[in-house]
Amino acid sequence: MSLFDWFANLRKTEPLIQEQQEREIADGLWTKCAACGVLAYTKDLKANQLVCAECGYHGRVDSDERILQLLDPKTWKPLAEEVYPTDILGFRDRKAYRDRLREYQQKTGLIDAVKTGTGLIDGLPVALGVMDFRFMGGSMGSVVGEKLCRLIERATAERFPLVIICASGGARMQEGMLSLMQMAKISGALHRHQKAKLLYIPVLTNPTTGGVTASFAMLGDIILAEPKATIGFAGKRVIEQTIREKLPEGFQTSEYLLQHGFVDTIVPRTQLKKTLAQLISLHQPFFPLLSPSQKLERHHSAIHNAI
Amino acid sequence: MPKTERRTFLLDFEKPLCELESRIDQIRELAVENKVDVSEQIAQLEARAEQLRKEIFSTLTPAQRLQLARHPRRPSTLDYIQAISDEWFELHGDRGGSDDPALVGGVARLEGRPVVMLGHQKGRDTKDNVARNFGMASPGGYRKAIRLMEHANKFGMPILTFIDTPGAWPGIESEKLGQGEAIAYNLRQMFSFEVPIICTVIGEGGSGGALGIGVAECLLMFEHSVYTVASPEACAAILWKDAKKAEQAATALKITAWDLKELGIIEGILPEPISGAHAEPLEAAATLKQALIENLERLVEMAPEQRQELRYQKFRQIGAFKEIPL
Predict the structure, then answer these.
(1) Interfacial A residues in 256-275 facing B (CB < 8 Å)
(2) Which of A180, A216, A254 to mutate: most B Cβ within 10 Å?
(3) Strands A162-168 and A200-209
């Protein structure tokens, strides 16, 4: 290709790029709230962590955004980024699992449905796992299981508290029984973390269902939930079809779980970092200001003074 | 199982065999009436029937195996417990306000050794099935199970669980009482026990409801039992958007004992009598008993920490992924 051709090509492609950029800005400038329909200036909405200022609706947050929201700037150290999904069963429904994986990877820029790593929350070290609903509905397959296990094992070894932001439809059926077994595998790793007397806080976001609810989402020492998230074990449709009844209003929401004693408190997203920092700091080992010998000394002098 | 009863519960793929068998019966009757000796022909036909039976049962598709696993006459947890234990004392209740009949358990003696046995319990007929909720346990069932396992751990008794459920009960009450929490708690606690744990899938292993009593260092499956992440019907409805694709889903999901052995999920496959466990329940029970005793003998030799490590590593290595260096 000659230099002249190159310039000609560049000219040809130039307007196209501009057009695309323009459209993105035009589309993204305002965002309509999925709950109340109010238009918000996208920058403001982002600044408010994708929570609608009008009705308090919590929009979906992707994993990168969540990490930015929670951790102190530039403290994120990702773990197990080399772990990639694979299609060992040769699974094909209407589409081959292999192709589905590639499509989602291209569409989302993610490797699979969870990001794991360590970082600081208000200066306190934490092991953090963040599920990403965009990747096949946050479904739990071998990669989610493996990455969370490595994260938990690291937390246990380094004596870090553990926080997992849950967002998942449940097990990834395309991996068959391998995906179901991840529930037990992660619970096993959590048992070791618990045995080391370390703090684990899952944060349940919309939606947290199926196998994730029936394993690590419900195993926290303290369980937090975002407002109005769908949280449950069986899917609503399955329950309706099984019992042939309409489900009550507000069934399987954060508020419903709070009412029935399965979450400790509901935390608005804008308060999440502060809340996590407070809870983690409350569970730091306590070092009394006086050493035992100093205490003894003070005790003796108190007796001495009394005499 | 008597022949007449077997016919009432006939599965599709057994039909050619059944037809042949009734033809043999007819010939035999005719021969008696007409006083003709046809013993040679009958022997030939019977040999052919036997051959046909072997062919049918050695080439079952996953969907056909699923039918066998759900067979209404398939031996249940209580059938096996009663058949294999020297004594058996059922215990009731989760100590939290309920006693789930879909999950049964108690203390028993197996070849002289005190053990705790528990499992999902399907009904033996429609009425019983309604009472047992078709073996679909509620949170109270899983809490009863963990209470019994804690009992076993306290008294140093091995834990033997039997899995046979379509899944955990999906109802309003179940969600209200924390079905997810109940199963999750069991998963974690089962890693803490010092005593040996052996789980056997005797029929249908349905998803989280099965796993809720399924954490063990030794997981066994009967030849015609299945273990699935979701029922093939549900999977077909979700992934294929067509519930009629259940047969295809059953194959794709890899639910048979051989598939799961290959994936490193189970330790052993228990052979069944030729037409399935329901044809010769006592023979199936004897196989189960033998397998449990053999595995127990191996596991009780180990130190508690060794068993816990074995259990942890068993699950830790399950999964398929590739590592691509950055």
Answers:
(1) 260-262
(2) A180
(3) parallel
> From the CA of A5, how many Å to the nearest CA of chain B?
37
pLDDT digits (tens, 9 = 90+) for A18-56: 444 444 444 678 989 999 999 999 999 999 999 999 999
Task: For chain A, positions 180-199, list CB contacts with chain B under 8 A.
Answer: 180-185, 187-192, 194-195
Q: What is the pLDDT of residues A1-26, one digit of tens each?
A: 566 666 666 555 554 444 444 444 44
Which residues in A lie closer than 8 A to residue B227 (C-beta atoms)? 177
Instruction: Write out the two tokens for B6.
Output: 């077997």
- Give A129 to chain B, closest Cα distance, Å: 18
> Other CB atoms closer than 10 Å to residue B44's CB: what's the count?
12
Give the nearest chain A residue to B317 (CA atoms): A185
Burial class (CB in 10 A: 0-12, 13-18, 19+), A124: middle
At the second CATH level, the architecture of A60-306 is: Alpha-Beta Complex (3.90)
The span from the CA of A203 to the CA of A58, in Å, is 14
Question: Counting every residue, how long is chain A?
Answer: 307
pLDDT band at A260 (very low <50, low <70, confident <90, very high): very high
What predicted TM-score, i.e. pTM, was given to this entire model?
0.90
Kindly report the nearest CA distance between residue B24 and chain A, in angstroms.
43
- CA A19 vs CA A16, A22, A27: distances in Å: 5, 5, 12
Question: Which helix (H) or strand (E) is A131 found in, with range?
Answer: strand A124-131
Cα-trace Rg, chain A: 24
Tell me, what's the pLDDT at A20? 45
Chain B residues closer than 8 Å to A187 by CB: 184, 187-188, 191, 215
Q: Where are the alpha helices (DSSP H) in chain A?
A: 3-28, 42-47, 63-70, 97-108, 142-158, 176-195, 210-213, 236-243, 254-259, 272-282, 292-306
DSSP state of A286: P
Q: What is the pLDDT of residue B1?
A: 55
User: Quick one: tokens of B165?
Assistant: 């459920």
Chain B interface includes A233 (CB < 8 A): yes
Element of type H or E holding B220: strand B218-222
> Do the Cβ atoms of A233 and B172 come within 8 Å?
no
* Residue B36 pLDDT greater than 90, yes or no: no
Is the pLDDT reported for residue B145 higher than 90? yes
In angstroms, rounded to a whole number, what is the distance separating the alpha carbons of residues A179 and A208?
A: 16
CA dist B316 to A141, A154, A184, B311, Å? 14, 14, 9, 9
Tell if the CB–CB gap between B180 and A232 is shorter than 8 Å.
Answer: yes
What integer pLDDT is reported at residue A21 of this predicted model? 45
Structure tokens at A213: 């609810």
- Cα B265 to Cα B272: distance, rounded to the nearest angstrom: 20
For residue B294, give the 3-state DSSP assignment.
helix
Q: In this complex, is the C-beta atom of A49 within 8 Å of any C-beta atom belonging to chain B?
A: no
Beta-bridge partners for B62 = none
Chain B residue with CA closest to A184: the answer is B187
Domain boundaries, chain A: 60-306
Structure tokens at A216: 């690590």
Closest residue in A to B228 (Cα) is: A177
Q: For residues B45 and B194, which has the higher predicted lDDT (pLDDT)?
A: B194
Of A89, A91, A233, the CB nearest to B168: A233
Cα B45 to chain centroid, rounded: 34
Radius of gyration of chain B (CA): 22
